[in-house]
Amino acid sequence: MNIIFYLSAVVAIYCTLRAVFHKHAVHALLYLIVSLLAVAVIFFVLGAPFLAALEVIIYAGAIMVLFVFVVMMLNRGEAAVQQEKAWLQFRTWVWPAVFVLLLFVEWLYLLLYQPPAVAPAGSDQPIMPQQVGEALFTRYLLGVEMAAMLLMAGVMGAYHIGKQKQRSYHRYLEEEELRSTASEKQTQQVI
Amino acid sequence: MITVPVSVQLLLPSVLFLIGLLGVLIRRNVIFMLMAMEIMLNAAGLVFIIGSSLWKQADGQVMVIFILAMAAAEVAVGLALILQVYQMHKTVDVDQLRELKDEQEQG
């Protein structure tokens, strides 16, 4: 089982790096989906089969599909790739990368030289959905209801923000705009 | 179940989190920044799962379910905002979105 963990870890890290550094939005999203699937495998290996399924369904399924839809709706094409190429130059990412690497070295030191406390020995069984559901709907019931409210607020907010708004100018401004477009048309015809 | 040491297990989410952080720092496209934030949230969930498997308790997995719900709500609102901003400004460059900046400081 250990080899599965290491393999999926390598896949996850590689695909996440490619996703972050890729110029093409859709390709980056596909790499991110592969990375999330690898993380789902790791969830499964770590004894969380329920969460592995949820990761595939919600993260790799629903959330990434939302991203793909938005990239599709923006529809920026080849020009966007050129722009990303121009933005993602060496001098743009070298200093953030150095600082992040520094942070990683600190993290490495803390993890390897001051290892986390050893947990009490328990059963070697994976945690099945029954146990998760039991905890979710007894001890964390309030949290579930708060999550429900958050999702409701999210849906309403997304609906209201994403709605195509009618332009609500003042009548005078509207007339002015109409007049200016009309005069533009006239000038175009003259030309 | 696996027998990889806990410090090695925790290395994976830390690497993923730092890659996500790097993505937020170096990208100028809002969509990529939102993607990088998803990577970071996912890494946080992975830490919870590792803790859950270490202590053999279901609580960590419950927390990951909450993180999933939060990420879904956040992405829905964030993407709606991105669409609206793109319609208004015809750009997804965060450096050009400075409507909130004070007028006097721009000179």
From TrEMBL, chain B:
Subcellular location: Cell membrane; Membrane
Primary location: membrane
A GO CC term attached to the entry: plasma membrane
Enzyme nomenclature, EC number: 7.1.1.-
Record keywords, A-Z: Cell membrane, Membrane, NAD, Quinone, Translocase, Transmembrane, Transmembrane helix, Transport
Subunit (UniProt): NDH-1 is composed of 14 different subunits. Subunits NuoA, H, J, K, L, M, N constitute the membrane sector of the complex.
Protein name stated in the entry: NADH-quinone oxidoreductase subunit K
